[in-house]
Amino acid sequence: MPRNANGRNVLLTTALSVVLGALWIAINASGQGPGLPSTQKGDWPYYTADLKGTKYSPLDQINASNFNKLEVAWRFKTDNMGPRPEYKLEGTPVAINGNLYVTAGTRRSVISLDGKTGELNWSYALREGNRAAIAARQLSGRGVSFWTDGKGDDRVVYVTTGYRLVEINAHTGAVITSFGKDGIVDLKVGMITGSGQQIDLETGEAGLHSTPLIVKDVAIIGSSFKEGMTPVTHNNTKGLVRAYDVRTGKLLWTFNTIPKPGEFGNETWENGSWATNGNTGVWTQMTVDEDLGLVYLPVEDPTSDYYGGHRPGNNLFGDSLVCVDLKTGIRKWHYQVVHHPIWDFDLSSAPILADINVNGKAIKAVALPSKEAFLYVFDRVTGEPVWPMEERPVQQSDVPGEKTSPTQPFPTKPPAYARNYLKVPDDLIDFTPEMRAQAKDVLARYRVAGMFNPPLVGDGNGLLGAINVGNAGGGTNWPGAGYDPETHIVYAQASNSSAAGLSVRKPPGGFSDLNYFAGRNDQPFREALGPGFGTAADSPLAKTIGKPQPPPPANAPAYGLNVQGLPIMKPPYGVISAINLDRGDLQWQVPFGETPDNIVNNPALKGINIGNTGQNGSVGLLVTKTLVILGDSQVTSITHPRGAMLRAYDKATGKEVGAVWMPAAQSGSPMTYSAGGKQYIVIAVSGGAYSGEYIAFSLPATD
Amino acid sequence: MKVKTTIVALVACTIIGVHYSTLRAQSSRSVWDGVYTEEQAKQGQGLYNEKCSSCHGDTLMGGESAPALAGGEFLSNWNGLTLGDLFERIRTTMPQNRPGSVARPANAQILAYMLSANQFPAGKTELSQQTEVLKEIKIDAQKPNPK
């Protein structure tokens, strides 16, 4: 240290520089400068709280001691945000400076609400006519994104039902005319089939439920398509991930999730099949490491969900986590978690960025929750698995033309956080020995062969299907998981009992160019349509082909993999788990949700203590300073008036510390924010006879 | 005087009692009471196959995210509500591609098929197509104890 006449000044200057430097680093490391929203300030700036996908807020006004005192602060019914009510409201608002922004209703309108009162500030809707009516992803979607220049230019960014990117002034609800063409970028432009044929802008298949990923001045947008069970062609629209200039709408880069010739991975589509297959989009939330300049893309299945005979090979980047450069979209690394995907194990959840410490070594990690209830953990810089992933032999397909991968990757750590295959007999219903025996009888009609059991040709005279767990709904589906950056623990809710018998059939003449797709040979064929998929008046409607079958006999065990109306798998039917990312193990796991009425009241269980079974279903959660908060996925009416409970769990132990009543099940993912010094929790509820509603909870005013 | 009062009170009690039991009898009608006909359910099956099965599946077990319309989870979800609630939900929002396009009689047939698929007994009278009447029929997931 210099010691001269100005020594003190030098010291002071140095100290000041250090402090300022530290401040500068702190601000930039969080990516959220003074004018920018952040969870630290009580905002909820992104669908997943932050760009790292954590769903974590440090707010703690609502805690274990007062959760039971929560009251409804306000509610917003979405019935009139479209021509008819919506019963599947899935949005999670973003909260900025006390105002909320979210999608709502069957028109997928955008609304701005006063966070203190729920009063409507403004609403915006784009009327898209037939383009929306026949869109691949309908209803209100998951919400919106927010962009600000930090100086008052604040914009709401969202994707319409008809797959248009729109920017709206966050203060007024008016479109930003300088963005795209009069505020709109047509996302169907550039979407292709085959080797490069532009899809029709009106009827071409593409849509999106997830929110744009906004980072710096870039908006990154995924793509999704119709249900992939019974497509009319394997040559469906190809998935893309694209980045746009958030100020102007200019296309910055495109990442081809089905690589073209010359691009990495093209050879994994044997016989040139890259050119004759589609899908492989990114339909869930993406995450980004702003400092590293890396974006993490969770990619879905190629066409079709259960038959891959028209695309021999591993089919990159199907079911792969892909890391690309934020500036260029160029691939940095990838990891395919399912080779040659034919199980509908689309990567469903936002990857979580976690800075962890394994055996004394600091690792910048990315953790991927999944339908298959594995948490896949990688070094997010290099793509190296943090714990080894073993390629293990799996059951091979006997469906003509299908060539399954001889092995599939299995993480050695952390252990699966829910069941991802049916272990016989251990997992079978065991309330009574008779029930277990009946379960085995039911299974005699199916092939049981561990995880990655390939779909078989379903036949009423032979096997009905291949038993798998978690395929369509998870495990963990689109609501994803959460993470506490202080303790390095991932909190994940997962279905623990969604067994299915997967089967394929030959499509009826003329319906499809696929040799096989989902179904059973002995059943009349009907096209499988996704929720909300609409075939408008002038589009070919789904037709019944073949004779209607007589209804099953009254005493048939019929409907699905059940025993006396009970799930074939024993409880818990749903779980919530805390996964320690430093150690790669489960810190705790508890049943999630209240025992469903039909289980409690089932006459076959009279006199048997069944305990808390939990509920099937995948729901989103919120992590705060001390709590994990999430709502039941089903309504119950035994221990409280008909409704569902929003529950709080102690983060450290998994003990339930509070619950408040909701009129319907949680159908979106909860969020929290602070407005006027008060913490609020907002949750979308809907389902059954209850139409969509955002409900805000807060603590009663103190006297 | 005292006797008169007692008689009046007794008569009043009887009248109230009769009325109460009538009310109870009306409100206690449930899906277990044979509220649809087999013929209606048969017609409903054809309509179901044509208009509903694409999303809800051949065997009413649901699709990728369209819920099942038969079985424990479905019954739990609607337990305690009325057929009127279910009827209105179907009538006003389904099929999703053309909501409201199915007429009341056809909706009643589809609902009858759903009842048969959930193994509720058929009866001699057709299921009403009037929402108000259907609101008087409760969805009880579990069969009540014999009276």
In short:
By secondary structure, chain A is mostly beta strands. Chain A is built from 4 helices and 42 strands.
Tell me about this structure.
The complex is a heterodimer of chains A (703) and B (147). Chain A contains four helices and 42 strands. In chain A, a hairpin with a 2-residue loop joins strand 32 (562-563) and strand 33 (566-567). The radius of gyration of chain A is 25 Å and the shape is globular. Chain B has 147 residues and is mainly α. In chain B, helix 2 crosses helix 6 (104-117) and helix 5 crosses helix 6. At the A-B interface, strand 33 and helix 4 of A face helix 2, helix 3, helix 4, helix 5 and helix 6 of B.
Sequence stretches where pLDDT stays below 50 over 5 or more residues of chain A: 1-14, 18-33, 531-559
What is the end-to-end distance of chain B? 41 Å
**What general outline of chain A do the C-alpha atoms trace?**
globular
Strand count, sense and barrel status of the largest sheet of chain B are: none
Name the beta content range of chain B. Answer: under 5%
- What is the β-strand count of chain A? 42
Number of helices of chain B: 7
Strand fraction band of chain A? 25-35%
Largest interface comes to: A-B, 57 and 49 residues
Q: What is the number of strand segments of chain B?
A: 0
Round the mean pLDDT of chain A to the nearest integer and report it. 91
